Amino acid sequence: MAVVVTKDMLIGEILMIDRGIAVILMGHGMHCVGCPSAAGESIEEACLVHGMDCDELVADINRYLEETQA
After folding, report:
1. Do residues 5 and 61 make contact, with C-beta atoms less than 8 angstroms apart?
2. CA nearest neighbour of 46 among 17, 18, 13, 3
3. Residues 13-45: tens digit of each pLDDT
4. Exposure b/e, 31-42, CB count within 10 A at least 16 = b
5. R_g over Cα of the chain
6. Where exactly are the structural domains of the chain?
7. Cβ contacts of residue 46 below 8 Å, gap of 6+?
């Protein structure tokens, strides 16, 4: 069963699940993935700062996890 990411999870937490998620975050324009303060932000907080659609990003991450952990 694949892990499901939610918008309240921390960036650092989801990167520990699968480092490939960094590519998805950067593809959505979140280029500060390696920043120490980003690791302590939730996906939702980071999306607010960057003006991104949080639900779309979470859906893309979960699709990726379903494909790679199947």
Report:
1. yes
2. 13
3. 999 999 999 999 999 988 877 777 778 899 999
4. ebbeeeebeebb
5. 11
6. 13-68
7. 11, 30, 38, 52
